[in-house]
Amino acid sequence: MNLLTSLPRPRILVTGAAGFIGFHLSQRLLDLGLAVDGVDNMSPYYEPSLKEARLKLLQARPGFVFHRLELAEREATAKLFEQGRYDIALHLAAQAGVRYSVEQPMAYLDSNLAGMLTVLEGCRRHGVKHLVYASSSSIYGAARQMPLREDMVTDAPISLYAASKKANELMAHSYSHLYGIPASALRFFTVYGPWGRPDMAIFKFVRAIFEGRPIDVYNHGQMRRDFTFVDDVVDAVLAVAGVPPVAQDGQAAHRVLNVGHNGPVPLMDFIACLEQATGREAVKHFMPMQQGDVPDTWADTSALERGFGVRADTDLQVGVQRFVDWYRTYYEVPPAPPAASPP
Question: How do residues 133-145 score in pLDDT, each as one tens digit?
Fold first, then answer.
């Protein structure tokens, strides 16, 4: 049974709806004719105008209802769940950023820990049929065995952000075990695409390239990332959301799934894709590894493919071009001047 298609009018909550993935997910749900309650605190972590523009597009669509609140506020979140009586909760709200967690650790307390707990309490008290929540590839720490599999030990996070995501998985597992809440953790791998976050590499690199500034290339370019296009991520969330896990053999109704492209890309190759899409050469400023970063990520996505028939297959150059095209339009970047003719 698929909850998204079998229930006559499924009630769906998307937290972080004005965020990058939450915006795309809400758009797709609305495209399917489903109603969405969206929650966001409109944090100024990155340029508020971008979140406001996403939210404006969502609010213009029938079936979308917006609630501005801090999930860490217990009474407000409890009231939201009591009134909403949600069938599915898609919990994407969080304080993001590995490097930011080194600089501002207290910012992760309310959003990532207290916010997760209030959502779990809401699910427990009001019969949510499936909780799907965002975890992260950073949970694997500095693991050297590749590709990264869901059954690997993940008890050595190297950033507070990663530790908070590990805590989320443990919290959800305990609530699933204690109260029978079906829950699915999705470990996202370097999601990119139009309307992306300005703190992500692709956004920072493209902005710097168009402004003629150097880009900071960490670990002297010796890094690989499993870049995953946002449309593929939304496909995975929707496929998983409709099919809650079932408790069996004494195990909790909780599962963990990698969501990635299953193909690491060297950072310098990624930059070459950006140069091709922008038509400009990047000025590279090579730097050492930053605190909390890892040299490689590579998702083993066989569990997602086997269980749900979903595979991230957007070609990197195609996805990068779509981001660059969006960036040019949104920020009204003028075309590059024509190359000078040879004498």
Answer: 999 999 999 888 9
Choose among 269, 220, 13, 215: nearest CA to 133: 13
The catalytic residues are 161
Percentage of the chain modeled with pLDDT above 70: 98
264 located within any domain: no
**Angle between helix 115-125 and 74-84 (nearest 10):** 30
Total count of domains within the chain: 1
Rounded Cα distance between 225 and 192, Å, is 11
Mean pLDDT within 149-158: 94
Quick one: pLDDT at residue 14? 98
pLDDT confidence band for 342 (50 / 70 / 90): low
Percent helix, strand, coil in the chain, to 5, is 45, 15, 40
Nearest to 309 by CA among 245, 234, 239, 227: 239
Cα-trace Rg, the chain = 20
Provide the β-strand partners of residue 13: 37, 89
Terminal-residue alpha carbon distance, the chain: 70
Structure-block tokens of residue 131: 């909780």
| Cα 312 from Cα 305, distance rounded (Å) | 9
Query: Which residue spans within the chain are E strands per DSSP?
Result: 12-15, 36-40, 64-68, 88-91, 130-136, 183-188, 191-192, 215-217, 224-225, 228-229, 254-259, 265-266, 284-286
Q: What is the pLDDT of residues 278-323, one digit of tens each?
A: 999 999 999 998 877 788 999 999 999 999 999 999 999 999 999 9
What CATH number does the domain containing 33 carry?
3.40.50.720
